[in-house]
Design brief:
By secondary structure, the protein is α/β, with parallel strands linked by helices. It has 11 helices and 13 strands. It folds into 2 domains: 217 residues, 3-Layer(aba) Sandwich (Rossmann fold), CATH 3.40.50; 66 residues, YebC, transcriptional regulation domain (Alpha-Beta Plaits, 2-Layer Sandwich). The protein binds adenosine-5'-triphosphate. It is a peripheral membrane protein.
């Protein structure tokens, strides 16, 4: 398993006008503790970039530096061509943020919040409420809204001033599964609109569903970056397919399954097979079962996902350190 750092992009990459965020060699310490350690990050226009990783990995610190809320100790940071430390006033109107600890006064109504957060670039507050399913709540107090509605309101507020970059930090933390799905649907609408989004999350299913690319961090460092599928291919365990063999000749069937593309290991216990392999093996075993005449009732497939990829990545780091 290769957990080496991804290649550092050359300085010329900045020439692309599609680059919304460009970070090179970012460092930040609190006291003598380094919490962001030589981080490179790129966000391109129209993409949803996820930052995932362990607790205390430095994710929030990184996105707060990008927004000019904290100062870097070293490194180059450009957001929409601006240096957040020097140009915070010019940058702020171009960003839409939902921060990890966002909250509004319980008695503030939705329409009051829209008014309060409207800047000179604000546009289409009513349309946004409608799009995110909150039009009927415009007269409601914040404190009377469900967790999912509150988070969707934060999305509306983050979008109100037509930002060129939206930063979402732990958007679905503490939400129940149904509310989380509502918020995911809202973010995926942003994605299909081509909004550029930087999303910090612990929810790996969320990152997998919503992000074009993800950056995995631990202890202030980037471990790897790529599309969710690339990280799964590089670091997740194998796919596992288990089933009872269809009636026939088990020894021949076993040999056929072993020979299927992507299959790496087959264990047989009685008439039950456990097949391990690349994700492609799922398709080939499925086709073989259909060809064998009957899809077994006990067919079970465990597909490697981003969660197993992150665990594999963290495990790889530990093995390397040992
Ligand atoms: N103001 C601060 N002073 C001292 N240490 C801090 C401060 N803010 C954050 N830290 C520490 O820096 C480290 C990185 O914190 P950060 O919030 O960036 O991590 P994170 O990856 O967002 O973590 P989590 O997923 O738990 O929110 C943590 O160990 C945290 O305790």
């Amino acid at each position: 398993m290769d957990i080496t750092r991804p290649p550092r992009p050359s300085p010329d990459d900045d020439a692309s006008t599609d680059q919304v965020v460009r970070v090179r060699g970012l460092r930040k310490s609190y006291g003598d503790r380094v919490v962001v350690d030589d981080v490179d990050l790129d966000v391109h226009r129209g993409e949803v970039l996820g930052i995932i990783g362990t607790n205390g990995a430095g994710k929030t610190t990184t996105v707060e530096i990008l927004q000019g809320l904290r100062r870097a100790d070293a490194g180059e940071v450009r957001v929409l061509g601006l240096d957040p430390a020097r140009d915070a006033d010019r940058l702020r109107p171009l960003l839409g943020s939902q921060l990890q600890s966002s909250r509004l006064p319980d008695r503030m109504r939705v329409d009051e919040a829209l008014h309060l957060f409207s800047g000179p670039r604000a546009d289409g507050g009513e349309t946004l409420l409608d799009r995110f399913g909150l039009a009927h709540r415009r007269g409601s107090a914040f404190g009377s809204m469900s967790g999912g509605e509150q988070q969707r309101l934060f999305l509306v507020l983050a979008l109100l001033n037509r930002p060129r970059l939206v930063v979402l930090d732990e958007l679905t933390q503490g939400l129940d599964p149904a509310a989380r799905r509502e918020v995911w649907a809202a973010v995926s609408r942003l994605r299909s609109d081509g909004t550029t989004v930087l999303l910090v999350t612990h929810e790996l299913a969320e990152a997998e569903a919503l992000c074009d690319r993800v950056v995995a961090m631990r202890d202030g460092r980037v471990l790897d970056a790529g599309t969710p599928a690339e990280l799964v291919d590089r670091h997740a365990g194998r796919a596992e397919i288990t089933f009872t063999l269809p009636a026939g000749r088990p020894a021949e069937q076993l040999a056929e399954v072993r020979a299927l593309p992507g299959v790496q290991q087959v264990r047989r216990t009685g008439d039950r097979l456990a097949v391990e392999g690349e994700r492609a093996a799922i398709a080939h075993v499925g086709r073989w079962l259909v060809g064998a005449g009957r899809v077994p009732a006990d067919l079970r497939v465990v597909v490697p996902d981003l969660e197993s990829a992150l665990l594999g990545l963290l495990g790889g780091v530990e093995r390397t350190a040992a």
